[in-house]
Structure formats: structure tokens, C-alpha cells
Amino acid sequence: MLDYLIKRTVQVLVVLFLALTTVFFLIRLSGDPTALFLPPDAPREQLEEFRKALGFDRPLLVQYTEFMTNAVQGDFGTSLRTREDALQTVLSRIPATFQLAFTALGLSLLISIPIGIHSAYKRNTWFDQTGVAFTVLGQALPSFWLGLLLIYVFAVQFKWLPTGGGGSAVHLILPALTLAAYSVARFARFTRSTMLDVLRKDYIRTAKASGVPMYKILSMYALKNTLIPIITLVALDLGVLLGGAVIVEVVFAWPGLGRLLMQSLLGRDFPVVMAGVFFIAFIYSVINFVVDVLYAYVNPQIRFK
Amino acid sequence: MLRKNHALLYLFLLVAVLLAACTPETAGTAPTTPPPQIQSAGDNNAPSKDLVIGFEADAATMLANTDVNYVTDVQIRNIYDPLIDRDKNGALIPVLATEWKNLDPLTWEFKLRQGVKFTNGEPFHADAVKYNIDYILDEKNNSFYRSRWKDIKEVKVVDENTVQIITVQPFPTLLLRIADDLLIMAPKHTQEVGLEKAATDPVGTGPYKFEKWTRDESLQLVANDEYWQGAPTIKKLTFKIIPEFSARLSAFLSGEIHLFKNVPVDSVERVKNSDNGKIEMVGSSRINYVALNTFYDGPLKDKRVRQAINYAIDVDELLKSVLNGYGTKMTGPLSKVNADYTETKDYGYDPDKAIALLKEANIDPKTLKLQLDTPNGRYPMDTHVAQAIASQLQKIGITVTVQANEWGNHLAKIRQHEMKDMFILGWGPAFDAQGTIENLFTEKAPYSGFHDKEVEAMIQKALPVFDPAERKKGFDELQHRLVEEAAWVPLWQQGDLYAVDKNLEFTPRADEKFAVFEMKWAK
């Protein structure tokens, strides 16, 4: 087991290293950041001076080495825009993003699992068909459009909810719903198909034959066996939810990490972009790491492969 | 079974169509009855109602004199006062400085307003002026304003209410720099708490006091009832950050924000037809133009080709059909709100002359292939304008490829001289001749794409002239010359469109500021 843990940890480090390296060089292809910060009438000497102060005049490899050396020590530099510590800036946005992602996740599980189970049980009835139709809809609607639609209906027409911004639970409803729409579709369909498989199993038939009530079969025997693959999917989707929050955060003016990253990219605030990318890559890797380790723990075959 | 499936499919389609009918575009045109809750009718009568202004981006810092950025400046100007300000038309007016004069071309003396206090109780004296200018000049502070102030040699405190600014060489535009850049932070407070803390806890002498700043959410200010010009009528002011335009519009329609700038021309009707909104427009000092790049080795190096393009672009038609009339046509390098404007020749629309000029230059328009770069969403309808220009030039046979760029790339391409034949750009605030002509048409300036040795010599001659009449003469000549050279295709002064709550008394300004002290609620 220890060997396996070490091996996986090394893999995580390699992933982080590669992610940072790729983004470092890609973002520098996007152009020189100095133009966006200095006033347009700044003379060329000052542009040069500014580039020098930021170290952008040095060879790319030197910049890269320096960046990596500092990054290893947790120093991503200071934001070019706000002059605040880049990693701190990123970390200060995490609570808002997590709040949104976990609410969306909880919401989608609450909605999707009952729908999935019921659809499987009532296979090919009107309920099943409508359920499928709506889940397809949820997956097909771009979150950008869905977000604006929800804002228009619930904030502008009915004035029940605020159009955007952060701060309270009320502000969370629309963005969480928007973000959840996609996962609801995935989870519901996945639950349905897994449940269908399970329901075909011999032990279910035996249970039925021995007169166990249907609700008990569904909730006790079938559900537990359905949940295992769903948990995997949830773990993987958490990453998608954290990343997918970018668009939703922009539409709803939600003060999270996604919006910060988008803004920093457009503003060429390299240090913040790098810190943000690092954080997201880190979360992805850690989630995958935990899932893999759990698997290995549950199924010894994996760790000895 | 199959039949049933179909029925459900139709039901699904019906639902989808109904949902689609709820999108803003389609729903807005329908003459629906107004929703029952007319924007919080109860407190409309209270003149002290809070004001919320919607903004697309957050300020970078609360420190003054640091970040050259409209978004930052326009918010913190409600906290800090300048020495000199502009009135609605752009003319200079005294604020914390009451009068000023030149002792000699290198020495300026300013008399300061007496009895003014910062909101922390600190008195405002000459040392505050010195502190703030020194702040800009100190390299350690990395102020993005420094390049504009580098000709300042020293700031001398003569007495409590008098300060002298001594320059390295004559600095004819110093007053403009003071009006457009310099804001006064409380020196004691800033030094005591340190810059890092002061960046999130500003103290000024302005009409509003800082209350709370939540990054990328909102900036909350409260009225400074001790303000030396009197207490503001609006007691609470919030800048709310909403990056996405449609969401901003929704927030306005739902009454969450009362004011925002840059309404796209195709959304004007929606605001006008809403229950709580009106549109205000002002000719901004910001100008839009098509640069004809002479740095690029192409046909536009030939003056006749540049003139031909000026004749072949119908600016009136663009204004009418693309901008729905929201803009003011320009004919030369400066707009009419520019203090140094002089009337120049209008090329007008004359495709025959354009063809004749191309012929004279030995160019068959059918073989002429040009690239036009445009930013995407930076200026009103920019990509649409570019497409329309391409089709106008197509009429005389010129093939134009339109290339739309993300703003950062567009700017970088200009600065690094990577632009091809033509590009669209805006410039502003543009209130004086030097700020525009020096920064656009000299060799070191890439923004107009135009450079000519003789014109450069004329500019260098005009810049240091101190006598106002002499100076004006130089810049008048330059304007005529630049038009004659067809240095660019001037388009228009941007028409700035604001969505304004019906009950808010707000007159937009040419300098794009939100001076909340000037605003009030009707009744």
C-alpha cells in the first residue's frame, strides 16, 4: 500500500509540474502584459523600464526557472493589477467558489437520484420519457443562456431573487441551479442506467419473489449497489463543477475563482493566472488521488497491478 | 409505444419553444402589461434614497495616483478631490486649488483652499499636495502615472496654503495633468497605516467617505456630511460590479442598480420601454477612428491611397445605419469638445474621386487587398463598423479582410507594430491638442499608424510653445496638415449612452465621470 501511495504522490507532482509548465509558456504566447497596464501615452522608455522591473525582458527560460523556484516555495509573486500576493488573492476566492460548487452538487444529487431511480423503476412510462427529455435539455442548454434566462424570469419579471452578486443564500439560488443543470442530467441518466442493471440482477428477482415490498427493494438493496459508481462520478464531476463555474460566475457576478481567472487572463495578470491554475490543478489531482486511493483500499487488485 | 414517444417529443418541443419565448430579445418587444411591482414605488419620494451604480469591472486599488484606469479613477474620485477639475464641457475649474499662475515658464504657484479637512479630521494643507506628487514620482511606488509627471523637478511648500511646482523644462500641459491625474490622499493617514493598508482604507477630502470594499462585488461609500461644498443629497452610494452586460441590464430592469454606462445601441429601446428607465446620451471626448498604417510596408504609404480611402468611407451612413445615430461625426484629428479644435476640410463621401485618386496612384482597386483589424466589443459596435467599412470599400472594388481581435491582443499588436494596413481604435479622454496629436502622430506613438518626417517636425516645434495664441496657431496648422495628409479616417466622437433610473437627476459628462455629488433623486 505504501509503495502505491508513493507512486501516486509522485504522479500528482508530475501532473502539477506539467500543468504549470504548459500554462506558463502558453500564457506568454498571449502577448506582453505591459501594454495593458501603463497609460497609452507612456513613452517607450517607461514601457521598457516597466518590463524590466517585472522581469519580462529576460529570456523565457530564465523567467521560467525563477518562477518554478519561487512556486515550489509557495510564492507566485504579486498581482500586476492590485499588487497583492497572487496566491492570497486566489485563496480568498476559494470559499465563494466552493460554496457555489458544493451547493450545485448537493442540489443536483437531490434532484437527480430520485428522478433516476424512479425512471428506472417506471421504465418507458411517461415519467421516464419526460425525465429523459428534461435531462437532455439540461445537458444541451449552454449555462450562459440558461443563466440569463433564469435571471430574466426570476429576477426581472417576478423580482423574487436578485440578478447576481454574492453574499447571502438568496444570491446563491440562481447560479447554483444553473450550474447544477448540467450535472443533474448526467447524474439522473447515470443513476437510471445503473439502476436498470441492478434491477435485472438475480438477487433482486429473488427478493421480489420472496415478497419483499418494492420500496424496500429499491431503497435497501438496489440503491446501495447503485451508489458506488455514482460516487465515482460525483468525485470526477466536482472538478467539472469547479471549472464549469467560470461562465456561471461571470453571468451572476459571483465573486469566485472562475471569475477572477477570466478577468486575470483578459487583463494579462500572469501571476494571478498561474496561482489560479496551480490551485485548480491541485484540487483536480487531489480529488483523483483520493478516489484512486479509496479504490485501492477497497480493491487490493489495483494496488498490486 | 412509438406513437407515445412522438407525443412526448412534441410536448418537449412545445416546452422548449415556450421557454425560448422568454428570452430577453423576444419578450422585450411584446407589449406586455407592466409587472405589478413598479420599482419600489414607496421610497421614490424620499430624496435621500440610496444610489447603486452598476459597473463592469472593479477598481484595482483605493490608492489615488496609482492605477491609470478609467474604472478605478471614476470610483475613487468620489472619495478624493482633485486640485483642479473639469466642468461638464471639459473646461478647467478650481477645486482644492483656488487660483494658479506662472511665476516663470518653469515655476507654477498654486493657492490652496483654506479650511478643508480630510474625513479623518486631518487638515488639508500644502504638504498634502507635495506628498501626493512625490508619491507619483517615487519609483518605489510603481505609479503608472509617473511617465506623465517626469518633468517635475520639485514641489515646494511655500506656506500652509501655497505650493510651487518647479519643472525641468516648460510644461505647458501641467494643468491638464493636474486635472486629469492628481487626486489628494490624506498624507498623515497614508503614512501612518502604510500604503498596503491605505489601498483598502482610503481617506480623502471628497464628498463621500469610504465604508466597505468587497473585491469584485461592491464598493460602498457614505456621504461626507462635513464636505466643504455642502453635504451630498444622496447619503449612500454603492458601486456594484456586474461583469456581464446582459446581467447588468437585467439588474437595471429589476431596479437593483439605478445607473450604468455603455448601453449597446441595440439595447437602447429596451431601456426606453422599461418602466423605470430612461436613456441619457452625451458626446464623449473619446474618439473612434480608422488608422491607416504607414509603419506597415503596404499601399497606404501612398498619400493618394489614404485620401482615396477617406473618400470611399461614408461616415454619415455608418453613423446612421450601424450606430443608430448615437455618435457625432468628426472630420479632423480633434473633436469639437477638444479645447484646441479647429474646423478642417471634410472629405465627405465621393467614390468617384476615390477611384480617380487610385488611378492616379497607378493602382487598380480590384487588385487592392487590405486587412482591417478591429477589437471585439471595446468600442460601440466596433466589429459591425469594421464589416460595414469593408463593404463600403468593396463598392469601389477594394477587398478588405476584417480581423477581430481580443482587446489585449489588439493593443499588443499596435504597440509592437504588428498591425497590417488598417485598424480601428478609440482615444480618450481627449480634451487638448497635445494629448492627442503628440501621442498619436509622432514617430514614437504607434496608435494612429501614421508618421511623416515633416509632420513630426511641425509637432516638435509646436509642443514646447508656451504662449497660448502662438500655441493654438501651431496646433491649428497641424490639424489642417493631418487632414491634408489623410493621416487617418476620423469616424466620430463616441456617443456615451447611459441607462438611468427615471427618477434620478443625472447629466452625463463628456469626461465620463460619475460625480455623484452632482446627482440627486427627483422629488
TrEMBL record, chain A:
User: Which UniProt keyword terms apply here?
Assistant: Cell membrane, Membrane, Transmembrane, Transmembrane helix, Transport
**Matching InterPro entries:** BPD_transp_1_N, MetI-like, MetI-like_sf
Q: Does the keyword Cell membrane apply?
A: yes
Q: Cite the Pfam families for this sequence.
A: BPD_transp_1, BPD_transp_1_N
Q: Where are the transmembrane segments?
A: 12-31, 100-121, 133-155, 167-185, 226-252, 272-298
This protein's record includes keyword RNA-binding: no
Classify the protein's membrane topology as the record does: Multi-pass membrane protein
Domain of life of the native organism: Bacteria
Question: Predominant location of this chain?
Answer: membrane
Q: Give every ABC transmembrane type-1 domain span.
A: 94-295
Where, per UniProt, does this protein localize? Answer: Cell membrane
PANTHER family named among the record's database cross-references: DIPEPTIDE TRANSPORT SYSTEM PERMEASE PROTEIN DPPB-RELATED (PTHR43163:SF6)
Family that this chain belongs to: Belongs to the binding-protein-dependent transport system permease family.
Q: What is this protein called?
A: ABC transporter permease
Origin organism lineage? Bacteria, Bacillati, Bacillota, Bacilli, Bacillales
UniProtKB/TrEMBL annotation, chain B:
Asked whether the keyword Transferase is assigned, the reply is no
Entry-linked InterPro entries: Peptide/Ni-bd (IPR030678), SBP_5 (IPR039424), SBP_5_dom (IPR000914)
Q: Which keywords are on file for this protein? A: Signal, Transport
Please report the stretch or stretches of sequence annotated as the Solute-binding protein family domain: 92-442
User: Does Acetylation count among this protein's keywords?
Assistant: no
SUPFAM superfamilies given for it? Periplasmic binding protein-like II (SSF53850)
- Pfam families referenced in this protein's UniProt entry, alphabetically: SBP_bac_5
Q: Where is the signal peptide?
A: 1-20
Family per record: Belongs to the bacterial solute-binding protein 5 family.
This protein is called what?
Solute-binding protein family 5 domain-containing protein
Q: What is the organism field in this record?
A: Brevibacillus choshinensis
